[in-house]
Amino acid sequence: MHEIHFDRFEIEDQSVRLYGAYFQGRIQRLAGAWRVLLWHRLEDDKKGSWAVLPQDTFTVDISQQDGGLLLDGGQVLPLWLQLSPFEFRFGDLSAEGVFPERSNTLSVPEATLELATGEGNAIRETNDGLPLGAGMNLVLREPEGRQYFGLGERTGFLDKKGRIWTNWNTDSPRQTEQTDPLYQSHPFVMGYQEGRAFGLYLDETWRTVFDLGATESSRSVLHTDGPTLDLYLITGPTPKEVLRHYSGLVGTAPMPPLWALGVHQSRWSYPDQAAIRAVAREYRARGLPLEAIWMDIDYMEGYKVFTYDRGRFPRFEALTRDLKEEGIRTVVIVDPGVKKEAGYPVYESGREWGVYVENRRGEDLVGEVWPSPAVWPDFIRKEVRDWWGEWHRVYTEAGVDGIWNDMNEPSAFSVEGRAAREIGKTLPLGAKHGALWHAEAHNVYAQQMCRATFEGLHTLRPERRPFVLTRAGFAGIQRYAWVWTGDNSSLWSHLEMSVPMILNLGLSGVPFTGADIGGFSADTDGELLARWSWLGALYPFMRNHSGKGSRRQEPWAFGELVLGQVRKALEFRYRLLPYLYTLAYEASQEGLPPMRPLVLEFPEDAEAALVFDQFMLGDALLAAPVLRPHQTHRLVRLPDGAWRDWWNGEIHEGMRWLPAYAPLDGIPLFQKAGSAVPLTEPALFTTQAWWSSLDWQVALGDEIHGWVYEDDGEGYAPGFISHLRGGYDGRRLRLAFEDDAARPRERVTAIVHGITEPGHSTVPYSYQGDTLTIDLSSGAAELTW
Ligand code: MIG
User: Fold this and answer.
1) H or E element: which one contains 282?
2) How confident is the model over 625-665, as pLDDT tens digits?
3) Using a 6 Å cutoff on CB, does residue 509 contact ligand 1?
4) Ligand 1 centre from 406 Cα, in Å?
5) 595 - beta bridge partners?
6) Which of 156, 152, 163 minimizes the C-alpha distance to 202?
7) CA 499 – CA 545 distance, rounded (Å)
8) Beta 136-141 vs 219-224: how paired, if at all?
């Protein structure tokens, strides 16, 4: 392995420039991170980014230390560098250096690249002049006891240490605990040790591989296939700070429409309009909440995007209109593959505009996916994104509310006659996206497709917030789409795995996520559906979806008992909406996910840090789902503080393991002392995010605080934050609702459990069992015992 050597440095435009015989470097100080960019000196340094937003840079003070340079970072931890050979230290993180692979020249004609895929296949590609073979490795020293979180959507548990993870978007159905990679690529990790955290983001869209102490436990190797190494060293010291800074780099999710947080029902596929109407009828006849019905690929005519099958959906517009009258929206699937068929307007207009990905001979690349033959729009180019966005008029005019982007790794069944197995189920590395090879564009194909969809919807309906769901994505995908975890199975192990998968997505800056409730492949059963519906009621995205050939799994599919259990979960979801919407707002502002691992809230609790089967919903609620069949109890780690059992009101001290009772019509849930969670009445569907009835569920504490964010739920009018504040000292309870919403409310109450009746109160209250319901409509209350 060759090391990288630099001979000298200079300060240029607030950045530290490094010069060597073969390589050059540039180091910049940003608000919460260092950017370290290294490139071969024959290249220019105009490397853009598909993920990182424009950043302010700050002046760097340099001093000499330990034979190297010490760069003072202000708010950011200092960075120590050695020029020859190149090494660096950033807090507890120390790099032995960066090592160019194989040679110092960029172009290695005829080199062979092998990409391991999840199924154990390999992609072999003779790369006629692809700038590969000049890959780079960053080698890090690994102290004992460091853990890694992040890396987006992954199998396994919460800690990502000890395995090799590949960033290469891959259509991975029938996943197991070992499958890697999956659909998304997030070359970001959060290192964590003894309460302190840092972040590492490798801003390379080429295939990258993170060996986190797997091959050698004392080292991690971050590899990129590309010719540059563009690294962000993100400062903490808390996990929350790392996530805030990382979100500052790659962006936060925009505020979603309220309805996206409601209940979604999907299946591949409801075959025709009668089937869709029947699902709507079943929901409403039983008085079950439902927000949207999803249409999978069979709504199209011959898998042609931006069409409907007029045989099976003769009156599509009437269908969406009638559903909307019941408060039910429609979401349709849109895959990237465009059927190559003469006379099909989408294909023809794309050909006219020259929008398709090309092969090396400059011809449209033709393959097969659901449509066959198919071509793929090159979303990497702006004019192609605009063209694609405009086609969504077909849906917006037909009353469709949201778009579901699937198969966008991109997945292919065959390309130019070569079968999926041979080509790793995607386009050849040497396919051309304008000036880029597919090898460089692959990982951002979906991200740019979602961008096209998002921006298209925004242009077509500027007064409404777009809603896009995607399967594949790259760092920053949250700016354009929500993410679901793809084809899981109706297995208890997949119910369990969905938790760490979603938590690590959240730690990677992707807040709005969910897994297919009930499981996609194979047949679910009633108990699994009930448990999954309760866990799903706390996923940021709550959608029951199942695959072709699997047993039906709508809430009523397993009889009255299960229906009752699922119904409670759906109703609980709607009761929680003010809290969820407030968390969505927090995500849009700060990048903190609604569903978060305990380590984010309690970084000092070493035992909580690796808990993968519990999570926090915001900072007030701790959930411990049951993830195995036939269990009536489970152990719950309660972190520091006091915790109120949501269902029976009992108070438990933290820093301990508690056996909790877990019937099928609930989920073990604990509320942190001193928090107040805003709830509303259950409803069949959402209307606006102003809660005319607001109930604050209060867990008593010396100090009490909760807040709620409200707005129109859909457009861009400003929103308002209202606070509930107060305190309780055992004899006196004070509560003040600072209502900023400036809209009349029918009812505002605070609910306190597990308390005796007060002797005196300044406001009306009711007392029943051990539950005190305090009328807060006058704003402030004081009760004494
Ligand atoms: O090749 O559109 O993950 O949710 O139902 C399968 C049909 C294509 C995969 C998605 C799944 C969807 C299915 N799709």
Assistant:
1) helix 273-285
2) 999 999 999 999 999 999 999 999 999 999 999 999 999 99
3) no
4) 7
5) 617
6) 152
7) 17
8) antiparallel
Of ligand 1's listed atoms, the one at least distance from the Cα of 548 is: 5
Determine whether the shortest distance from the Cβ of 605 to ligand 1 is under 6 A: no
Output Rg (C-alpha) for the chain, integer angstroms: 27
Q: In Å, what is the CA distance from 553 to each residue of 525, 547, 558, 571, 715?
A: 8, 10, 8, 18, 34
Q: To test ligand 1's pocket by mutation, which of 169, 265, 407, 517 has the most ligand atoms within 8 angstroms of CB?
A: 407
Residue among 629, 662, 634, 616 at smallest CA distance from 490: 629
If you search the block for the tokens 């709550």, which residue do you land on?
Answer: 542
Q: Which long-range contacts (CB under 8 A, 24 or more apart) does 239-242 make?
A: 239/149, 239/190, 239/192, 239/197, 239/507, 239/599, 239/600, 239/603, 240/592, 240/600, 240/603, 241/32, 241/197, 242/190, 242/197, 242/198, 242/199
Neighbouring C-beta atoms of residue 651, cutoff 10 Å: 15
435 or 555, higher pLDDT: 555
**Could you tell me which residues come within 8 angstroms of residue 281 by beta carbon, excluding any fewer than 6 positions away?**
none
Sign of the Cα torsion 29, 30, 34, 35 reads negative
**487 part of the active site:** yes
| Angstrom distances, CA of residue 461 to CA of 201, 320, 390, 522, 759 | 34, 17, 11, 38, 56
Specify whether the CB–CB gap between 708 and 696 falls below 8 A: no
Which atom belonging to ligand 1 lies closest to the Cα atom of 267? 5
The contacts of residue 643 (CB under 8 Å, 6+ apart) are: 622, 651, 652, 653, 654, 670, 671, 672, 673, 699
Nearest to 275 by CA among 312, 238, 306: 312
- C-beta neighbour count of 376 within 10 angstroms: 31
Q: Which phi and psi (to 5°) does residue 193 adopt?
A: -155, 130
Could you tell me the sign of the dihedral formed by the alpha carbons of 292, 297, 302, 306, in that order? positive
Cβ–Cβ under 8 Å, residues 648 and 660? no
Selection from 595, 520, 532 nearest residue 566 by Cα: 532
* 409 counts as catalytic: yes
Which helix (H) or strand (E) is 314 found in, with range? none
Gap between the Cα atoms of 57 and 28, Å rounded: 6
Predicted pLDDT at 174: 85
Cβ 487 under 6 angstroms from ligand 1: yes
CB atoms within 10 A of CB 30: 22
Closest Cα to atom 8 of ligand 1: 407
Sole residue written with tokens 């309220």: 258
The 10s digit of each residue's pLDDT in 687-708 is 999 999 999 999 999 999 999 9
Distance 171 CA to ligand 1 centre (A): 10
Amino acid at 62: I
Instruction: Look at residue 107 in the predicted model and tell me its pLDDT.
Output: 37
d(CA 637, CA 616): 11
Report which of 16, 736, 685, 715 is spatially closest to residue 328, judged by C-alpha positions. 685
pLDDT tens by residue, 543-581: 999 999 999 999 999 999 999 999 999 999 999 999 999
> Are the beta carbons of 432 and 417 closer than 8 angstroms?
no
Cα distance between residue 644 and residue 659, in whole Å? 14
409 in contact with ligand 1, CB cutoff 6 A = no
Cβ–ligand 1 distance for 737 under 6 Å, the answer no
Query: What is d(CA 329, CA 312) in angstroms, rounded to the nearest whole number?
Result: 19
**Residue 425 beta carbon below 6 angstroms from any ligand 1 atom:** no
Give the amino acid at 226: G
- Whether the per-residue pLDDT at 315 is higher than 90: the answer is yes
The identity of residue 463, as a single letter, is: E
Report whether residue 406 contacts ligand 1, using a CB cutoff of 6 Å: yes
End-to-end CA distance of the chain: 74
Nearest Cα residue to 326 out of 274, 265, 273, 285: 285
What's the number of CA atoms in the CB half-sphere (13 Å) around residue 110?
0
Catalytic: which of 406, 605, 645, 714?
406
